[in-house]
Amino acid sequence: MAYEMALAALADQTRRRVLEQLRHGPRPVGDIAARLPVSRPAVSQHLKVLKEAGLVREERRGTQHIYEIDPKGLGPLRAWLDQLWDVALENFRAEVGAPPKKGTGK
Amino acid sequence: MNAPMKITPAPVRKTIVVNAPQPRAFEVFTTRFGHWWPKSHHIGPAEMAEAVIEPRIGGRWYEKGVDGSECEWGKVLAWEPPSRVLLSWRINGQFKLDDNMDSAVEVRFIAEDSNTTCVELEHRITAVDGEALRAAVDAPQGWSGLLAVYAEAAQAE
C-alpha cells in the first residue's frame, strides 16, 4: 500500500531531514543541500526516493528543481488514520445505540 | 549539535452524532471502551482480550491480551464526565511507553438535545523526537509512526 512505501522512504534519517526542510514551503535542491551536512547529489538521490514514494513533488523553474511536500502523497497516511477512527467510531455508535446489557448498565 | 527533529503534524479530527444522552455517550466511550474498540487494532503481541480506560485522572489506558499480558497505550490526562476526556498516547515503535511520544486523543461530548450527543474526537501530536520517530517508522504497522509523519502540509490543501 502507498503508506507502506512512504514509511519505507522515511525509515532513513537523512531522508526525514530532507523532508523536514520542506515543511515550510517549496525549496530548490541547492537550498536544501546547503542546510544539511550532505552532498547535493546525495540530496537529489534522497529527493528522488521521496518523490517515488509520493511524499514530495518536483517542479522545474528554468534550471532549478524546486521540491515541495506533496499533500496528495501524504494523503494515504492520513486516510489510513482516518479510516481507523472511522471504524472505531462506527463501532462506538453501534455500541451506544445498543440497549444496555443486564448488569453493566446503571 | 544534533538537535532532535520535531514534527508538528495536523491532527485527525472526527465528529459523530449518536442517539444517546450525553452521560451515556461519555460512559460508553470510556468505561465501555473495550466493548467497541475494534479488536483487530491491538498493539500487544497477543490477541486482545479487552481494552480499558481507567475512569480517573492519571488512570491507565491499556489493553489486555488473551495471554494475560498488559500493554499500555497511555494515561488519562483529563477526566471530565460527561463532557470531555483527554488521553495520552505514548507508544513508540517498539510498542512500549515512550515519553518522547507526545500524542494525545481528546474527545468532547456535546449534548444536542436530551437524547442526541455530538462526539468530537481529535488525535494530535505536539512534538516527536527524531529517534522516537525513527523507531516508530521502522516498526511494522507503526501507528504511532503514521501519526508522526503526516505533516501539517498534508491537510493544507
Would you kindly provide a written description of the structure presented here, covering whatever features stand out?
The complex is a heterodimer of chains A (106) and B (157). Chain A has one domain: Arc Repressor Mutant, subunit A (Orthogonal Bundle). The longest helix of chain A has 27 residues, at 71-97. Helices cover 59% and strands 13% of the residues of chain A. In chain A, helix 2 crosses helix 4 (40-52). By secondary structure, chain A is of the alpha+beta class. Chain A is built from 5 helices and 3 strands. The model of chain A is unreliable at 101-106 (pLDDT under 50). Chain A starts with a helix and ends in a 9-residue tail after the last helix. Chain A has a 3-stranded antiparallel sheet with strand order 1-3-2. Chain B has 157 residues and is α+β, with helices and mostly antiparallel strands. Chain B has one domain: Alpha-D-Glucose-1,6-Bisphosphate, Chain A, domain 4 (2-Layer Sandwich). Helix content of chain B is 18%, strand content 39%. Chain B has 4 helices and 7 strands, in the order βααββββββαα. In chain B, strands 1-7-6-5-4-3-2 form a 7-stranded antiparallel sheet. In chain B, strand 4 (70-80) and strand 5 form a beta hairpin. Residues 1-8, 92-96 and 126-157 of chain B have low confidence and may be disordered. The chains are: A alpha+beta (106), B alpha+beta (157). Chain A binds chain B through residues 3, 6-7, 10-11, 13, 16-17, 19-20, 22-23, 69, 71-72, 74-75, 77-78, 80-82, 84-97, 104, 106, and chain B through 5, 7, 10, 12, 14, 16, 18-20, 24-25, 27-29, 32, 35-38, 41, 119, 121, 123, 130, 133-134, 137-138, 142-143, 145-147, 149-157.
